[in-house]
What we know:
The protein is α+β, with helices and mostly antiparallel strands. It has helices at 2-5, 24-37, 67-75, 88-91, and strands at 45-47, 50-52, 62-63, 123-129, 151-154, 170-173, 182-184, 187-188. The chain has a four-stranded mixed beta sheet. A two-stranded antiparallel sheet has the order 1-2. It has a two-stranded antiparallel sheet with strand order 3-8. A hairpin with a 2-residue loop joins strand 1 (45-47) and strand 2.
Amino acid sequence: YRNLMGSSPSNFQGDELPVERMSWFDAVEYCNALSAKEKLTKCYQISGATVEWADGVKCTGYRLPTEAEWEYAARSPATTVYAGSDSVDGAAWYSANSGSTTHAVKTKTANGRGLYDLSGNVWEWVWDGYQSNYEALPSIDPIGPLTSAPRVFRGCAWSNTASYARVAQRNTYAPPSGYSSLGFRFVRSNP
Length: 191
């Protein structure tokens, strides 16, 4: 993050630590900057506090995952309570084992898709606006409301109890806000 954006907002500094204290706006701006650097189409059109996503998941640049994509990636082919394990200590950095700090990425068990840190370390912003009755969305490729003020984040953090590390856990926060346990994960659609 620091190499591309010039500085890191993180409370906990280190080359192997996840970036945190990210607002949702910081995350979409990073995705656009990385897309531009790699000469890919920017996924987001940003005008002040308005962010539009014209091509949706068809965009070939970097973007935030949808909430459904995040959950699909976290669940992996094997159904576990946490991303990669039924044991929270095997899968996540959380309040009981973190020592009140983030930890180097990829130091806990990967899930069945080879992805790390989907449970614990830092929460991760997703694209979707919050909808309380998530089940009311379409069953195939659901995307929450695009105009919702609160945005969804998933995954748990170093400061939360084990119950928050479950793959099914959802939370929301205002897009301009960031705090020391909130980061992001970016994705690209397969062209």
